[in-house]
Queue: 3 jobs
Job 1
Amino acid sequence: MSTYTEEVGKKLNALLEKTYDAEKGFKKAAENIDNESLKTYFNKKASERYAFGHDLKTEIKSYNQEIDKGGSATGKVHRAWMDLKALFSFDDEESMLEEAIRGEEASLEEYDDILKETSLPSSTKELLEKHKTQIANGLYNIKTLEEIH
């Protein structure tokens, strides 16, 4: 039987922190872009990450673990970089798409890392697989947007 270990709790809290960062990053991208289709896409992804955060908090709490608050320093630096690129880039829409793709690929790696954990309870594994599928689908969509752009 799989159990919820302290190590799993730490990994989920780290994922939660990165989820906060992604939500803020998608909001920032939507603010820095004029293309309505991309703005809609980024806002949708921000809402999705908000829901992921809620899901993760509920899962962490269900195993009586503490929830870490806020985003990471890395996330703040990444958003500042996106602002800077938008300020100086001749094609800021393209650079925002590239950053979003890079971020989504990193998210998939984070989910893969946690899903390799052998002590995951089935509820946690199912939740993470659901999120990972949504991220992968979104990555496919954003790569399609990049090709059109």
Job 2
Amino acid sequence: MARQGQTIAPDAGMIERIARDAIARLPEAFRAHLDNVVLQIEDFADDETLDALGLEDPFQLSGLYSGRPIGTKSIDDSGTLPDMIHLYRRALLDEWAEGGETLETLVSHVVIHEIGHHFGLSDAQMHALEQEAGHAPE
């Protein structure tokens, strides 16, 4: 999505569509384990989340995975909240406005990074996943 001529900030629905498109392009081996992960688009992280991460500025957080990585789940997890990927629209838009990449590239990068946490992947493994899905940052 080009910024030229953009007069209205992309809404939560557009951010979600971009994120779901990025997820749809992941290898099936990953997508098969994402059915129960909730994708949540919010303007900003709440104060409790920011405090827990030691952040004062909500623009510092564009995405967050909350839950337990797949490899650490057990039967004792029954009754817990579902795993969630949070994307923070205003922080994403701010980063998009300041950077040189498309909104699709930025949202894809953030959602894939958070999916990586769901699988317990390292940053290097996440980068390789992004490359395989055609989402490596420019």
Job 3
Amino acid sequence: MDNIKVYQPPGQVSQVEAFIEVLHPKLREKLVWQIFRLSRTPPAGLKEPHYKHFSIEKYRDFYELREKNRIVIRVIFTVLPNGEVLLLHTFQKRQSRDTMRALERSLKLLTLLRDHPERAVEYIVEEERKS
């Protein structure tokens, strides 16, 4: 997908890609569509209910993509200075503290990426890989 990146540890599959691949097909399709829309939306257009910008100082660089079917899925991401979107962490939200854990994890990943920018790779949807 244009302008969409994910964090990929060396020699491993990205957590974001692995999480999305195992979702129920209908929910996966909805989430991939939201990610596609995200790649076409300027930061000023990222508003609730589908997106949330965090206002706490420590997390102000982060946004949350929100999707639900029977379960609630969240994707923590940031918009890079060059306009690319970096998907950092995906999770199933069961409790309110799940978001704080994901934000902390995302903060660590962003720090790692500042030291190793080559670990930010283009996000390719499974259907795109097959063609």
